[in-house]
Every structure is written in structure tokens, then in C-alpha cells.
Design a protein that fits this description.
11 helices, Enolase-like, domain 1, globular, 3-stranded antiparallel beta sheet, about 35% helix
């Protein structure tokens, strides 16, 4: 078994804008496993995000990546060795499972091209007219769950967009999610979440910056109190909050402290496949729901997240996953996945 590494720079079709700034390109290290005795290969992607991933500086030199892989594979459990390096762990696990055609990922109805996975349509931050045009496009494409990035343009415009959407589509027709990417302080979050709750929004991702556990717990508690009192409420989904929390006991402590309604799991950021499954398991024990989302990987990473989601959530996934990022790049890597309306499918492939 031979492992090779190569770099790839992906270029966005349009700037990917969030409250933290915008992305024009995304760098990835592609990990390939080969065996000279057969034609089978295994592919994985290590693509940390520059301003989010705690391990973003670990892969500057390919020699460092190779050394980390060698040290991990020499250990009894490579996943434990690579816990501090979630992007690389995700790449190595993905390539291993792919090379082995491990039933953990490849013995599901999705992997056999029998069912598709529902996904949400993603609307990037822009001005009001641009975002409204994006929404209309997603609806024409058949999406019935849309996620809006908010927190970077004028609040009145963001609210007007949400009002426009809700005036045309009820929550029974269109599920609406919003993602603030930690843009607000606690007082601003309380005020704006109370307003947003009037529009039957499914959830808000990361309303305040990460690692403010007491403040985030307060927001979650206020929503639960509103729900218990029969009022309007806006469930909270943790995203950036999970980054860097790699120890199992730390995960339990965070979930017990904040008690969110949802967590959004991204293997590249949140512990690879091993860490993602652990997050989902610990959340399930506490009655906390979850879904999986891309962290702007190429189709290699996107494919492997889809395979993992199909295993973790079973053949009857009803909650839309965040896997609609495959069309973001002008030079994406062709893989055996495709979008059909609002579902991702694994294209039928010949058995190796």
C-alpha cells in the first residue's frame, strides 16, 4: 500500500462571503492510497479553513503532512494520534475506507445508489437583490430547505429578505435556516433572535462567537423557556463551537453546559469521521439533534461526508444535510456524486 500527497487549489465561482470575510480560493491536500497489484485507489481530502481550523498551520509543508501520517500509522490507533489534526484525520480515514471499500461506509442504500440524501440550498451573503435572486434559483431547482448566511450586510435588508420569503412560503412549504457565523454579541443576539423567531425559522447557527459557553447556554435556555411558555422560539445550532473540542470528556462537558437544540457536524473541522460520529453519539444521548455539513471541501471530501451521513443517520434521512457545495468551484474534482433536484445521489459505478 502506497500513500501519495498532492496539493490542489480550488477557485470559487463567486466570492463565498460570511460574516468573517470572503473566500476566493480554497487549498487542499489530496491523499491517495494505491496498491501496485490492483487498480483500486482510495481518496481523501485534507482542506482546513484558514480562519477556522485549529490545525490550519500543520500542513504548510508536505513533509510535515507525510511525517504526521507515518507517525499515526505506526501507532496502534491512528485516529487517537491524529485527534489534534481533524482535517488530516478525515483525509486518512476517508482514503482508508475508500481503498478498503469498508462496509461501514459502502454498505448503505446511498452507497449502492438506491436512495438520495436530502440537502439544503445555500444562499451566500450579498446585497438584498442578489440574495433574493439566489433564493429564487434554489426554489426553481426544487429545494425546500434553504440556509441563509446572515450577519454581514445591513440587518434591515436581511430581515426584509426573510419577510419576503415568508410572505410567499410558509414553514410547511419551505424550511428556512440562518447562519450568523458568530457575528453578534450577546445582547444583539437576544434582540435579533426574538425578531427572527416570529418567522418560523428552523434554527440559527452560531449566533455569537464560539467559546462563550455561559452566554450561549443563556441563549439556548431562553429559547427553551419561550417554547415551554407557548411562545415563538428560535432553536440554536452549534457549529464553530465544536472546533478544537476534540477530547471526549470536553465534548460531554460542552454539550451539558450549553444544551443546544442542534449541532452541525463538519468532519474536517470537528474531528474527522471518528470525531463526527462521537459528536453525534454524545448529542443523541442528550436528545440533541444534528446534521452534517461540508466545510467547503471539493467533491472528494463532499462524497465522503455524504457516505458518512448515510451511515450515521440511516437510509431514511429526513433532515436536509449541508451537502450542496459541490457547484461552488469552477475547477472541482469529478467524483461519483451528483445533485438531482434537492437530493445528492451516488452515481452508479462499476464494481472494482
Amino acid at each position: 500500500m502506497n500513500i501519495s500527497l498532492s496539493r490542489r487549489t480550488l477557485h470559487f465561482r463567486r466570492p463565498a462571503r460570511t460574516s468573517r470575510g470572503e473566500y476566493l480560493t480554497h487549498d487542499a491536500v489530496i491523499l491517495t492510497i494505491r496498491d501496485d497489484r490492483s487498480s483500486r485507489i482510495g481518496l481523501g481530502e485534507c482542506a482546513p479553513l484558514p480562519d477556522l481550523s485549529h490545525d490550519r498551520d500543520a500542513y504548510t509543508r508536505m513533509s510535515d503532512v507525510a511525517r504526521l501520517i507515518e507517525e499515526a500509522l505506526d501507532a496502534p490507533n491512528y485516529a487517537e494520534v491524529l485527534r489534534p489534526y481533524p482535517a488530516l484525520l478525515f483525509a486518512l480515514e476517508s482514503a482508508m475506507y475508500d481503498y478498503q471499500q469498508n462496509p461501514l461506509l459502502y454498505d448503505t442504500p446511498f452507497a449502492r445508489s438506491e436512495v438520495g440524501i436530502p440537502i439544503n440550498g445555500l444562499v451566500w451573503m450579498a446585497d438584498y437583490d442578489d440574495m433574493l435572486a439566489q433564493v429564487k434559483t434554489k426554489l426553481r431547482q426544487g429545494f425546500r430547505c434553504i440556509k441563509l448566511k446572515i450577519g454581514a450586510i445591513d440587518w434591515d435588508d436581511e430581515l426584509r429578505l426573510i419577510q419576503t420569503i415568508r410572505s410567499r412560503f410558509s414553514s410547511h412549504t419551505l424550511e428556512l435556516r440562518v447562519d450568523a457565523n458568530g457575528a453578534w454579541d450577546i445582547d444583539e443576539a437576544e434582540e435579533k433572535m426574538a425578531i427572527l423567531a416570529q418567522y418560523d425559522i428552523h434554527s440559527i447557527e452560531q449566533p455569537i462567537a464560539a467559546y462563550r459557553w455561559k452566554e450561549m447556554a443563556r441563549l439556548c435556555r431562553l429559547q427553551e423557556e419561550a417554547k415551554a411558555g407557548g411562545g415563538k422560539y428560535l432553536p440554536v445550532a452549534l457549529d464553530e463551537e465544536l472546533i478544537g473540542v476534540n477530547d471526549t470528556e470536553a465534548k460531554r462537558l460542552m454539550l451539558d453546559t450549553i444544551r443546544p437544540q442542534y449541532i452541525v457536524v463538519k468532519p474536517t473541522l470537528h474531528g474527522g469521521m471518528t470525531g463526527a460520529m462521537e459528536w453525534v453519539s454524545e448529542a443523541n444521548k442528550r436528545g440533541i439533534s444534528s446534521w452534517m455539513t461540508s466545510a467547503l471541501e471539493s467533491n472528494i471530501g463532499l462524497r465522503n461526508i455524504a457516505l458518512l451521513a448515510a451511515r450515521v443517520y440511516g437510509p431514511r434521512i429526513t433532515m436536509p444535510q449541508g451537502l450542496g457545495t459541490g457547484l461552488l468551484y469552477t475547477d472541482n474534482i469529478e467524483m461519483d456524486i451528483e445533485l438531482r433536484g434537492s437530493r445528492m445521489w451516488r452515481a452508479e459505478v462499476d464494481e472494482v
